Amino acid sequence: MKDLKGKIAVITGAGRGLGRGIALHCAKKGMKIVLADIRLESLTSTEADLHALGADTLLVQTDVSRLADVENLAKKSYEKFGAVDLLVNNAGISPAATVLEGSLDDWNWIMGVSLFTRSDQYRTLSV
Question: Is the dihedral of CA 76, 78, 82, 86 positive or negative?
Answer without folding.
Answer: positive
